[in-house]
C-alpha cells in the first residue's frame, strides 16, 4: 500500500488497517489519523512512536500490558501472533513451553507487565548489539558502585 492510499483513508478505514500496529491499542491509530498527511512510512512510524513517547509512564505500561505473554495462552489456543509464529515458538517442546511460562510469570511478577520481544525481527547482529548494551549497563552500574565506595578498595 502506498502512502497516498494511507492519506486518503477515512477514520474508520485507517483504524481498521492500523488499529493493531501497536498490539491491541487502536486508540493510538485513532490519534495518529488526525496527523495526516504523512510524507512516507518513516513519517507515519514517527507519529505512532511519538504518541507512545508522549504518554505518561502509566499509559506506556498499559501498552505493554496489552501484549500477550511470549508463547503463553495464545500458543495453547493456536492463535499466536505472526511475530511469535515466525520466531519458531510453535515448535517448542512441552518442557520448553513450561519453562517459558515460568519465566513469563516471574517477569510479570517483578515488573507488572509481560516480557515483550520483537521475536520475528530477531537477527544475530541485533541480539548481539542488545546484549552488549545490557553488558555495558551492568558495567556502568559496577563502575559507579566502585567509584562511590572507599577509594582504598579501588
TrEMBL record:
Subcellular location per UniProt equals:
Peroxisome
Which reaction(s) are listed as its catalytic activity?
5-hydroxy-2-oxo-4-ureido-2,5-dihydro-1H-imidazole-5-carboxylate + H(+) = (S)-allantoin + CO2
- InterPro entries on file: OHCU_decarboxylase, OHCU_decarboxylase_sf
Q: Name the enzyme group at the top EC level.
A: lyase
Pathway(s) the chain acts in: Purine metabolism; urate degradation; (S)-allantoin from urate: step 3/3
Major location (coarse):
other
The GO terms describing molecular function are: 2-oxo-4-hydroxy-4-carboxy-5-ureidoimidazoline decarboxylase activity
Source organism's superkingdom?
Answer: Eukaryota
Lyase among keywords: yes
EC numbers listed for it are 4.1.1.97
The record's keywords, sorted A to Z, are: Decarboxylase, Lyase, Peroxisome, Purine metabolism
Example of a GO cellular component annotation carried by this entry: peroxisome
Q: Which GO terms describe its biological process?
A: purine nucleobase metabolic process
| Residue stretches making up the Oxo-4-hydroxy-4-carboxy-5-ureidoimidazoline decarboxylase domain | 7-120
State its role: Catalyzes the stereoselective decarboxylation of 2-oxo-4-hydroxy-4-carboxy-5-ureidoimidazoline (OHCU) to (S)-allantoin.
Give the family per the record.
Belongs to the OHCU decarboxylase family.
Supply the name of the protein.
2-oxo-4-hydroxy-4-carboxy-5-ureidoimidazoline decarboxylase
Q: Which organism is it from?
A: Nomascus leucogenys
Amino acid at each position: 500500500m502506498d502512502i497516498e492510499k494511507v492519506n486518503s483513508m477515512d477514520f474508520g478505514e485507517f483504524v481498521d488497517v492500523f488499529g493493531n500496529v501497536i498490539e491491541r491499542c487502536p486508540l493510538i491509530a485513532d490519534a495518529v489519523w488526525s496527523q495526516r498527511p504523512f510524507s512516507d512510512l518513516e513519517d507515519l512510524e514517527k507519529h505512532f512512536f511519538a504518541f507512545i513517547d508522549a504518554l505518561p509512564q502509566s499509559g506506556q505500561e498499559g501498552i505493554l500490558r496489552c501484549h500477550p505473554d511470549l508463547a503463553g495462552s495464545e500458543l495453547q489456543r493456536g492463535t499466536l501472533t505472526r511475530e511469535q509464529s515466525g520466531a519458531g515458538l510453535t515448535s517448542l517442546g512441552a518442557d520448553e513451553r513450561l519453562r517459558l511460562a515460568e519465566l513469563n510469570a516471574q517477569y510479570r511478577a517483578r515488573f507488572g507487565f509481560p516480557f515483550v520481544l520483537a521475536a520475528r525481527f530477531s537477527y544475530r547482529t541485533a541480539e548481539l548489539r542488545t546484549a552488549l548494551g545490557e553488558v555495558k549497563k551492568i558495567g556502568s552500574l559496577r563502575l559507579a558502585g566502585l567509584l562511590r565506595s572507599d577509594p582504598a578498595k579501588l
